[in-house]
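Example S7 (structure tokens).
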């Protein structure tokens, strides 16, 4: 990393807030902490850990991240300070106070407050005048400023707001103490030149604009989030709000790896430098993908499985002669090379520990290490070559089901008999809350996985709709680890055909009945795909059950 006289580009990651707003993504606290640790190690400057007022679960997650990840210095020696933990808050005192309470213990903390400024939002959503909008924005920033020094303000839907009105609001919040002004293209509407020109206009016409950091926050509805963000950088943006793999609301947010690698690849073009350890991109992409259940498309820039594959003969020939003929980024730069490094069944604890350290899982307790080592040994018995990709899949699994969090049911045993026209499954589950061991069997007309899912539905006493079932092979060969990702929703308790016990997938009636139902994702990895599917299904059911108990305890959820 060469530091020049250019400005540093501040990387603000919102994978755990806007990213977690992706449809169907629900991360447990343990999963969020693991992702937060990896983001800190990657060199992210500001981590938006969540929206604390949204629910008790969100508050707890932000608080644990602030306490446990906020002080970490691992991998940040070159940056010289720990990550800043930010929480999101609407422009109301109760939200801002709750946000502060959650982040209070982080050594570096930021309150990020937002209020819509476009006429369409003011008239139809907030039903307030422009004057009232300015008052509320100033009041929110002033209050936040009594709690922390680092305050960010976002005029929501800035991309469709009147620019002179934006200048009025932004000048007022700078005077009230805002230190970062974030300009969201909330609905992904802007064109790159338009977004860049807007940033230039706002900086030129906002009073005190030289005292604050200007930030870009783009959504990808037209596939332009990265282009818009880069155009912003060329026009004065010095902080980018991004997510790993571009996950986020609807079509997603700007992908961190794309913006950072564009700046990295064109050091002379952009007026900024970055301090991200790009060699960790591939690993963190895989971690976020398996924990969130959002599969990375193979042709995704930088971190897709095909990003460094050369299929055509002409390209292969060129790359063999000189890599630069067809590669603008080397796989090593983003860590795509190490993903196939191998461990075998003779690898001992020391080799395994050192590989875990390289993967960023160096802080496992002795007990967690032993569980991981046992899973590795079991896998190594059935698979000759265990790769980093396999280890990441196993560790993601372990993070998801660790510490008893959201784990009501575990599999005690599973027996499947498969034939040409149907399959039967006998499943034994343990209810960890009551200690009960439950056993039942079912027939699957379309195969063993359906049989297992039906048996589990009977055991947990719920009608479950399977909304998504994805299976991917981690690596190559017949012994490849199968990684299964599912999305489920609970079915209606009475009435429709969906209550018949012989279906696990969603019917049209289910779709109508299931509108607005909460969905849960789960994932599992195993060299046996039936076991991987069972783990994924149960992982999702455990999240559903945990959410049910929260609802019984009266937890509320507020949307952004
Ligand atoms: O897209 C958006 O406007 C947001 C704000 C809350 C910053 O996510
Ligand atoms: Zn957003």
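Recovered sequence:
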């Amino acid at each position: 990393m060469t530091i020049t006289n250019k400005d540093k580009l501040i990387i603000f990651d919102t994978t755990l807030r806007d990213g977690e707003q992706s449809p169907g993504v629900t991360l447990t606290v343990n999963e969020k902490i693991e992702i937060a640790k990896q983001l800190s190690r990657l060199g992210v400057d500001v981590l938006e850990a969540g929206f604390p007022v949204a629910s008790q679960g969100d508050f707890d997650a932000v608080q644990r991240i602030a306490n446990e990840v906020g002080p970490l210095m691992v991998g940040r020696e070159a940056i010289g300070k720990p990550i800043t933990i930010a929480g999101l808050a609407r422009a109301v005192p109760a939200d801002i106070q709750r946000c502060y309470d959650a982040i209070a213990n982080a050594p570096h903390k930021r309150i990020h407050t937002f209020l819509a400024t476009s006429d369409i939002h003011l008239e139809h959503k907030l039903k307030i005048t422009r004057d009232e909008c300015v008052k509320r924005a100033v009041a929110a920033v002033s209050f936040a400023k009594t709690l922390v020094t680092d305050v960010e303000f976002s005029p929501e839907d800035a991309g469709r707001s009147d620019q002179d009105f934006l200048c009025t609001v932004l000048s007022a919040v700078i005077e009230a103490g805002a230190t970062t002004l974030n300009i969201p293209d909330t609905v992904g509407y802007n064109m790159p030149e338009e977004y860049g020109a807007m940033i230039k206009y706002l900086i030129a016409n906002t009073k005190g604009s030289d005292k604050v950091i200007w930030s870009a926050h783009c959504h990808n509805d037209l596939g332009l989030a990265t282009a818009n963000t880069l155009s912003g950088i060329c026009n004065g943006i010095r902080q980018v709000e991004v997510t790993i793999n571009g996950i986020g609301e609807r079509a997603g947010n700007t992908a961190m790896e794309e913006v950072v690698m564009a700046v990295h690849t064109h050091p002379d073009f952009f007026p900024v430098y970055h301090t991200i350890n790009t060699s960790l991109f591939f690993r963190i992409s895989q971690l976020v993908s398996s924990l969130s259940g959002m599969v990375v498309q193979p042709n995704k820039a930088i971190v897709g499985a095909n990003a460094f594959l050369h299929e055509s003969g002409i390209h292969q020939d060129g790359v063999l002669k000189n890599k630069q003929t067809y590669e603008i980024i080397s796989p090593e730069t983003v860590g795509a090379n190490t993903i196939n490094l191998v461990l075998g069944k003779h690898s001992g604890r020391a080799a395994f520990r050192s590989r875990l350290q390289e993967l960023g899982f160096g802080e496992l307790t002795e007990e967690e290490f032993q569980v991981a080592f046992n899973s590795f040994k079991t896998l190594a018995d059935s698979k000759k070559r265990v790769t980093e990709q396999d280890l990441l899949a196993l560790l993601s699994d372990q993070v998801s089901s660790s510490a008893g969090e959201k784990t009501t049911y575990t599999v005690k045993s599973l027996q499947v008999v498969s034939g040409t026209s149907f399959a039967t499954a006998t499943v034994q589950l343990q209810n960890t809350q009551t200690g009960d061991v439950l056993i039942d069997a079912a027939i699957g007309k379309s195969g063993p996985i359906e049989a297992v899912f039906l048996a589990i539905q009977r055991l947990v006493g719920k009608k479950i709709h399977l909304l998504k079932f994805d299976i991917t092979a981690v690596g190559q060969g017949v012994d490849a680890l199968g990684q299964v990702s599912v999305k489920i929703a609970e079915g209606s308790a009475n009435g429709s055909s969906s209550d018949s016990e012989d279906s696990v997938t969603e019917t049209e009636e289910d779709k109508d009945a299931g509108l607005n139902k909460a969905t849960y994702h789960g994932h599992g990895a195993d060299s046996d795909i039936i076991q991987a599917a069972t783990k994924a299904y149960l992982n999702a059911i455990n999240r559903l059950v945990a959410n049910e108990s929260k609802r019984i305890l009266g937890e509320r959820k507020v949307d952004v």
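Notes on this example. Confidence is low (pLDDT under 50) at residues 493-501.
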